[in-house]
Amino acid sequence: MQFTEGPVGKTLFLFTLPTLASSILQSLNASINAAWVGRLLGERALSASANANALLFFLFSTTFGLGMAATVLVGQSLGARDMETAKRTIGTGFAFFALVSLVVATLGIAFAPQVLTLMHTPPDALPLASSYLRVIFIALPGMVLYMFVIMALRGAGDAKTPAVSFLVAAVLDCVLNPLLIRGVGPIPAFGIAGSALSTAIAQWTGVLGVIVWMYKSKHFLRFARGEGHYLRVDRRILRTLIVKGVPMGLSIAVMSSSMIVIISLVNRFGSHVTAAYGACFQLWNYIQMPAIAVGTAVSSMAAQNVGAKRWDRVSLIARAGIVFNVILTSVLVVLVSVMSHTAFALFLGSDSDALPIAQHINAMVSWSFVMLGISFVLSSVVRATGAVGVPLAILFVALWVVRIPFAYALAPTFQAEAIWWSFPLGSVVSLLLSILYYRFGNWREARMLDRGRGPVDGEAAAVEPAG
């Protein structure tokens, strides 16, 4: 999809919908798989998979930033009609991720029990977790390459193919999960390893399916005959992906580590409060999905227009992204608030003492995600130029300088209320700082790749607009 021409609002809306659908599919896939493990194998197996998945999330967070950087660089290159750099970026990223993921997978298979022991995995769950994790490491290269290819396609303006691909992979994973856990007909029962095996099959099917589709459809980003040299790592591009991608990846680490600290503070107020907060957190994951989807779409659209030097359209994209985020997130907040008793009863039970606590927490916190979403959209626009340091700093200030110290300082006086108030306070700070930087910062002068020295390793080739 070409983002440098045509109506901004309509294009952003059509690009956001399949991106949002992809996020929902991934979350539902994970939830359904966890339900299969818990129901068919019990709590010990569920604990084992949770420990293994925590490690998997950490590994993904370290590679996600580089994938985002590649998305932006591909988008900028296509906006500048520089097909050479776009293909070199994809080839460098694919080769780098393939090599690194294979090394990590090999080490993971060999040392899975030792790693899980360092994570203080419960002894009774350790054998199951080791079995599950070893198979997950077999899936790791497929997962990483799948993520990278999907993000590259989004950078090129294609959100439909990732959504369709995620649907196929999710259905395959959910169907194979119980069959491989329990066994059926000639298929033996693999136990918890079967759940990991179904994920491996789905992920490898996903990445291979997308690659085959790119060649069948003659996608303009495919490597045609004689273009195998693009799979060599270009050191200049790799350096850019690392320098720009690491701060993007660190944003995930900043958020996840802050939530660990917050939950440790919540735990001080008893199991009912912790259960209520846990139920809220499950629903907040869905409330935040529109902001993530809009931010992803905005970043891809803005990157192409930055490459084309269409700064007028970059401003329009930012405004449209804010409007869509406010509308979509507000609708979800209202729905959850109106149906709060029913929604929280799904997790806590209708007669749980934690249910009214969850309703109170949600009433105080949920609206802050509208402000946080606006901040996320503005940061996505800023990152599309290559300015990655300040958005990371804003996130760190909002969470680690404002939210966490506020909650800890006032908790002795106001008890758990201090924690709930820290959420909107942190969101307000993030919003204000993001607006100030967007309005007065020098982010428009940032660059992903210095093009002043000419094309990366050869002459730039013109790229035709994608349909």
Give a short summary of the structure.
This protein is mostly helical.
What does this entry look like structurally?
Its main location: membrane. InterPro entries: MATE_fam (IPR002528), MdtK-like (IPR048279), Membrane_Transporter-Flippase (IPR052031). It is found in: Cell membrane. It is a multi-pass membrane protein. Pfam families: MatE (PF01554). The termini are close together. Helix 1 packs parallel to helix 5, helix 1 (8-41) crosses helix 10 (311-338) and helix 10 packs antiparallel against helix 13 (368-383). The longest helix is centred in the N-terminal third of the chain and has 37 residues, at 43-79. This protein has helices at residues 8-41, 43-79, 83-118, 126-155, 160-182, 192-216, 235-266, 271-287, 289-307, 311-338, 340-348, 355-365, 368-383, 389-414, 417-440. It is globular, with a radius of gyration of 23 Å. It has 467 residues and is an all-alpha fold. It contains 15 helices and no strands. It has one domain (8-445).
Radius of gyration: 23 Å
Number of strands: 0
Backbone structural class: mainly alpha
Residues in β-strands, percent: under 5%
Residue share in helices? over 70%
Shape verdict: globular
Helical run tally: 15
Tell me the span between the first and last alpha carbons: 5 Å
Question: Segments where pLDDT lies below 50 for 5+ residues?
Answer: 452-467
**Major sheet:** none
H/E topology pattern: HHHHHHHHHHHHHHH
Q: In the residues, how many domains can be counted?
A: 1
Query: Could you tell me the mean pLDDT?
Result: 88
Transmembrane segments: 54-78, 90-112, 132-151, 163-181, 187-215, 241-266, 286-304, 316-337, 357-378, 385-406, 418-438
Main location: membrane
Protein name: MATE family efflux transporter
Membrane topology: Multi-pass membrane protein
